[in-house]
Write a structure and sequence with these properties.
Blueprint: E1 10-18, E2 24-33, H1 49-56, E3 64-69, E4 72-74, H2 79-85, E5 95-101, E6 108-115
Antiparallel strand pairs: 1-2, 1-3, 3-4, 5-6
Bound molecules: adenosine-5'-triphosphate and magnesium ion.
Adenosine-5'-triphosphate (ATP) binds near residues 25, 47 and 50.
Length: about 120
């Protein structure tokens, strides 16, 4: 992987989301997304993962904080706008099959489904 000193592609500073019903889904999220790196987003059910991805992809807006795209503050309001800038688009979570095979025997030791909701 290429390592550079360039600025992150996207940076979030103190991003918050309070839904109209008063639910606070995100409080003060700081995040840097760097070019050429794979980033994982982990958290318990209801932690705010989907809300964060929806904000990053422009389908909903944050209620506080600031998002920077290539070091410039952005206030995008639609997925189309984000896509046009080259940002996050088409994030979908899926039902995926998995199988773990024991290398010694070649037998399946565990199989099932991983359910990730939108
Ligand atoms: N449209 C909405 N209106 C009100 N509250 C919402 C809305 N969408 C999500 N929430 C609430 O915001 C919080 C974060 O939800 P979110 O769906 O982002 O979590 P998640 O980490 O994706 O959870 P899961 O692992 O179950 O997919 C939860 O308390 C949820 O009930
Ligand atoms: Mg989710």
């Amino acid at each position: 992987m290429k390592t550079t000193n360039e600025a992150p592609l996207m940076r979030l500073e103190q991003v918050t989301k309070t839904f109209p019903n008063g639910t606070i889904a995100l409080r003060g999220v700081d995040l840097s997304i760097e070019r050429g790196k794979v980033h994982g987003l982990l958290g318990a059910n209801g932690a705010g993962k989907s809300t964060l991805i929806k904000i990053l992809s422009g389908s909903i807006s944050a209620t506080g904080g600031q998002i920077f795209w290539k070091n410039k503050p952005v206030h995008w309001t639609s997925p189309k706008e984000v896509k046009a800038m080259g940002g996050v688009s088409g994030c979908r979570e899926r039902l995926a099959a998995f199988r773990f095979v024991a290398p010694e025997t070649g037998r399946v030791v565990r199989s099932g489904w991983l359910l990730a909701r939108r």
